Amino acid sequence: MQKSVAYAFMLAATLGLAACDKPSENKAQDAQEARTEAQESMNDAAKESNEAAQKEAEAAQEAAKEQQEEAQTPPATAPAEPAAPAEPAATDAPKQQ
User: Fold this and answer.
1) Predicted pLDDT of residue 7
2) How far is Cα 18 from Cα 25, in angstroms, rounded to an integer?
3) Per the structure, how many domains does the chain have?
4) Which tens digits make up the pLDDT trace of 2-47?
């Protein structure tokens, strides 16, 4: 009879300890959730970084376009000088009729 009581006690202790092991499972689940949230945060940061880089590239392209347009346009402050009249070319050959 002592053996059966000892076996029952050991079984109850084992089941009790197994039931008390929940915090380790919760820690594992919490760690998994933290990893998932960290991954999502990294993905969001990468997306924002890509968007910022794209906006910066567009701004640089627009600035380059504006500089090119300014370089092609003559300055408005310098007045244009009239061209000298062209002189007719002198020919020594007699006119043919």
Assistant:
1) 83
2) 11
3) 1
4) 788 888 888 888 887 777 666 667 788 899 999 999 999 999 999 9
Structure tokens at 69: 């347009």
CA 74 to chain CA mean position, Å: 38
Q: What pLDDT score was predicted for residue 87?
A: 65
């002189």: which residue's tokens?
Answer: 87
Q: Read off the tokens for 11.
A: 């079984």
Domain that holds residue 30: 2-69
**52 inside domain:** yes
Chain-centre distance for alpha carbon 51: 4
Task: Establish if 41 belongs to a structural domain.
Answer: yes
Whether 22 is in a domain gets the answer yes
Is 24 inside any structural domain? yes
Whole-prediction pTM: 0.45
